[in-house]
């Protein structure tokens, strides 16, 4: 059960990721996460939002939706895109595509690191297709101790 549920929508343009990153960083800091953990949360958010903007949104007007939930155990973030930028392309993160990204990830390749970073730094990471034809990426960051119900 959420103590707080924040919903945002940004245009599918990279310019709008930084203000969301700053907001979530300030929120995480206010919730008592360490400076290092705040940086981890911001990096993961930056990576999953960048993927949603660059790979998973039909156009800037449709946008990317974010849902930020806070409960006694964790800060959870869901980033929802609406599907690929190319006509007819839907759900760019199929199982086969994820396997391909994992296999081709290397220090010399610029792409494919965002998913790995999110999996490595978040306490929970899930990706699944959504009803809009895109992908929902859900990450959670647990509090070191349960939070007081009053935020």
Structure description:
The chain is an alpha+beta fold and 151 residues long. The protein has a single domain (4-142), classed as Histidine kinase-like ATPase, C-terminal domain (Heat Shock Protein 90). 36% of the residues lie in helices and 23% in strands. The protein is built from 4 helices and 5 strands, in the order E-H-H-E-E-H-H-E-E. The chain has helices spanning 17-30, 35-55, 95-104, 113-121, and strands spanning 4-10, 64-70, 74-80, 124-129, 135-142. The chain has a 5-stranded antiparallel sheet, with helices on one face. The model has no long low-confidence stretch (mean pLDDT 83).
Produce a short descriptive summary.
With 151 residues, the protein is an alpha+beta fold. The chain contains 4 helices and 5 strands, in the order E-H-H-E-E-H-H-E-E.
Q: How much beta, percentage-wise? A: 15-25%
Structural class: alpha+beta
Give the mean pLDDT: 83
What fraction, in percent, of the residue positions are helical?
25-40%
Largest sheet: 5 strands, antiparallel
- Can you identify the CATH superfamily? Histidine kinase-like ATPase, C-terminal domain
Summary keywords:
151 residues; Heat Shock Protein 90
Write the layout of secondary structure elements.
Elements: E1 4-10, H1 17-30, H2 35-55, E2 64-70, E3 74-80, H3 95-104, H4 113-121, E4 124-129, E5 135-142
Antiparallel strand pairs: 1-2, 2-3, 3-5, 4-5
Helix pairs in contact: 1-2, 2-4
């Amino acid at each position: 059960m959420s103590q707080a549920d924040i919903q945002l929508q940004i245009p599918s343009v990279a310019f709008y990721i930084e203000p969301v990153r700053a907001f979530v960083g300030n929120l995480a800091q206010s919730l008592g996460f360490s400076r290092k953990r705040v940086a981890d949360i911001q990096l993961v958010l930056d990576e999953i939002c960048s993927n949603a903007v660059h790979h998973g949104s039909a156009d800037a007007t449709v946008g990317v939706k974010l849902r930020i939930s806070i409960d006694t155990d964790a800060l959870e973030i869901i980033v929802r895109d609406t599907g690929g930028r190319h006509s007819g392309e839907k759900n760019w993160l199929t199982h086969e595509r994820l396997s391909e990204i994992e296999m081709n990830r290397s220090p010399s390749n610029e792409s494919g690191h965002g998913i790995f970073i999110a999996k490595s730094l978040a306490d929970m990471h899930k990706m699944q297709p959504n009803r809009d034809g895109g992908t929902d990426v859900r990450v959670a960051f647990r509090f070191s101790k349960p939070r007081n119900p009053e935020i």
